[in-house]
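Reminder: ligand-aware prediction takes two inputs, not one.
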Amino acid sequence: MRLSADELQRFGEALGRDLAGPVVIGLSGELGTGKTTLVQAICEGLGARVLATSPTYALVHHYETSDGRPVYHVDCYRLKSPDEARDLAFEDMVRDGAIVLIEWPERAGPWTPPLDRHFRLSYGELPDIRELEEVR
Ligand SMILES: Nc1ncnc2c1ncn2[C@@H]1O[C@H](COP(=O)(O)OP(=O)(O)OP(=O)(O)O)[C@@H](O)[C@H]1O
Ligand SMILES: [Mg+2]
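Here is what comes back for the chain with adenosine-5'-triphosphate:
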């Protein structure tokens, strides 16, 4: 589907409102297509507040919903090799019942946890429109 920035925001918020952990969502797509924008909208829908950005792994942002459920936003773009993703401990996040949102999941190679949902964003023909598809 083709979405403006506002529409992508509303899609993300609606998705976030319905999410319950443990759940893993992958977000793929070229640089600047709106993956982080979508993650932020999902977090707003969840009513999540920032807990911490781990100093060790700046790739991981930790949030918590108002009722105390953990939310992780992980950006795998800057992994130098898939094996660096081992230390991200995706398994622990899932075991804790977290909502896990992963940008560039393919970069984590075999360490990518099974994705419950996988979205792909791409540029449309207009500058401020993005194409959003669910990968199945
Ligand atoms: N329809 C749209 N949907 C989402 N973002 C849009 C749209 N139109 C314009 N934008 C702009 O595109 C940019 C998307 O940036 P964002 O950081 O979310 O992308 P990204 O996919 O996370 O990039 P990266 O791969 O570098 O992490 C923002 O500046 C946003 O304002
Ligand atoms: Mg991003």
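Strands lie at 2-3, 23-29, 49-53, 60-64, 70-75, 99-103, 117-123, 130-134. The first strand starts at residue 2 and ends at 3. We will return to this case in the review session.
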